[in-house]
Amino acid sequence: MKPPAFAYYAPTSLEEALRLLHELVHEQQQDVKLLAGGQSLIPLLNMRLAHPDAIIDLNALESQLSYVRREGKTLHIGAFTRHYALQNHPEIIRFCPVIAEAVRLIGHAAILSRGTIGGSLAHADPAAELPLVCAMLGGGVTIRNEGGSRHDDASTFFVSYLTTSLEPDEILTEIKLSVLPPRTGQAIEEFSQRHGDFALAAAAAQVTLDADGTLVELRLCIGGAGPTPVDCSHLLSSLAGRAPSTEDIRDALRRLDDELEPLADIHADAAYRKELAQVMAYRAIERAWQKAQATLADGDAKHDA
Amino acid sequence: MEYQQISYQLNVNGRAYAVENVEPRMTLADVLRDVLGLTGTHLGCEHGVCGACTILLDGMPARSCLMFGVQAKGQEITTVEGLAPGEEQLSPLQDAFWQEHGLQCGFCTSGILTTMTWFLRQNPTPTREEIREALSGNLCRCTGYQNIVNAVERASRELNSEAKT
After folding, report:
1. CATH of the domain at B21
2. Mean pLDDT across chain B, nearest whole number?
3. Whole-number Å distance between alpha carbons of B9 and B12
4. pTM score, two decimals?
5. Closest CA to A33 of A61, A67, A6
6. Cα separation of B1 and B87, whole Å?
């Protein structure tokens, strides 16, 4: 298994990469793949499932595009931030802990040391953890081409299996996520056959409570059960404004079935994946809820910082 | 079709190597094995699942089948050949694998040794459960892992008693 031949470019700045990409795509009509961490693209090349004319290796942009910055209520994450850097970043742990939780589920140390958040989002595997979490959080992305930049929301960025709104001449440069609101807990749960495998079903949830413990907002997104991460928050919106019982939540989650269209494969059939999705959703909500409740007990002082 | 050829320098186990006139599509694993003759790095699945080709890149584990050789220039690569302090010597981890019979056919061993060398630096006193978790990215079809876990435990003890003296 060896990659097919391609022309290799390794620009040293984002501007140079955008210029080169524009030229290859528009003037030479080439099929170009961008190489970030390579943990999905290189297997595809090795198995010859991808045959690009050219590869633009973005690794020299790591120093430019690897960062986590908080500005007001938004976390800005450079697209080239590698998984291992996210996992232990103090701003991530404090202001968006579900990202660090998700990274632990991605894979082994040798994968986390190379893979990048931008690469994971642009690859858009519907069972992958970071797309799921970004969709659940209602995150956004900054996308550049030679002419300028645009913003897209996670809800429209993920289009289908391995397909995003990225045009061939565009590079995803930044991910934007809201910081954890006060009295809020987040969690991700997944079922996979071995640690580090793709999930048969995964769920990410965020629970925001009022000071008296009533539910303000519940977000839920399901992974591995459709062509993109599936936002199911609307199923739970009727629970807001009260303190729903376990049964209320389970009842609401029964309607998940109609939202999901999982694929059947050798590992699990569609009906089993739907069942798993319900269980993962419940567990994620339960754990996020406990974390939100723990903040009530702690008082809100630390969230006001 | 004309194939692009490039030349670059790699730093492997503290030594500089010139890699001349190779195609950019050549993976780091193939460069190490076929160009530099460092055949201690093994190739199993060639798509990042088995862990046999794991090397250390600036001290962190990476799959050498999921990188092109050219991408490693300017970084310090450690392969299994670079773990021992010298000829005729073994690192404490390698010695523990020998003592505990931590390998049978040996195909997976170089990737396990590099991964565990990193792991013991991160976590010098791991539990058996943590060792198993850290081993989960390396497939071994012979041993059933029992002796590998024993070997890593022994290496951890040896390294810690060395550190104290």
Report:
1. 3.10.20.30
2. 96
3. 10
4. 0.95
5. A6
6. 45
Distance CA B100, CA B149 (A): 9
Is residue B76 a part of any domain in this protein?
yes
CA atoms of A76 and A151, how far apart (whole Å): 13
ipTM of the complex model: 0.94
Under an 8 A CB cutoff, do B66 and A114 touch? yes
Last residue of a domain, one of B82, B109, B127: B82
- Inter-chain touch A42–B65, beta carbons under 8 Å: yes
User: What range does the domain containing B135 cover?
Assistant: 92-164
Q: Which domains does chain A have, with CATH numbers?
A: 7-58 (3.30.43.10), 65-178 (3.30.465.10), 184-298 (3.30.390.50)
List of chain B residues whose C-beta atoms are within 8 Å of the C-beta of residue A113: 57, 60-62
Q: What is the pLDDT of residue B2?
A: 76
Mean pLDDT, rounded, of chain A: 95
Q: Does B121 touch chain A (CB under 8 A)?
A: no
Residue pair B48/A39 in contact by the 8 Å Cβ criterion: yes
Q: Is residue B130 part of a domain?
A: yes
Interface test with A, best of B25, B31, B56 (most A CBs within 10 A): B25
Measured between beta carbons, the chain B residues lying within 8 angstroms of A57 are 68, 70-71
Torsion of CA A105, A109, A110, A116, to 10 degrees: 60
- For residue A299, what pLDDT band results from cuts at 50, 70 and 90? low
Nearest to A178 by CA among A206, A139, A204: A139
**What does the block give as tokens for A89?**
């970043």
pLDDT at A198: 83
Asked if residue B154 and residue B113 are part of one domain, the reply reads: yes
Segment holding A248, helix H or strand E: helix A246-254
Is pLDDT above 60 for A303?
no
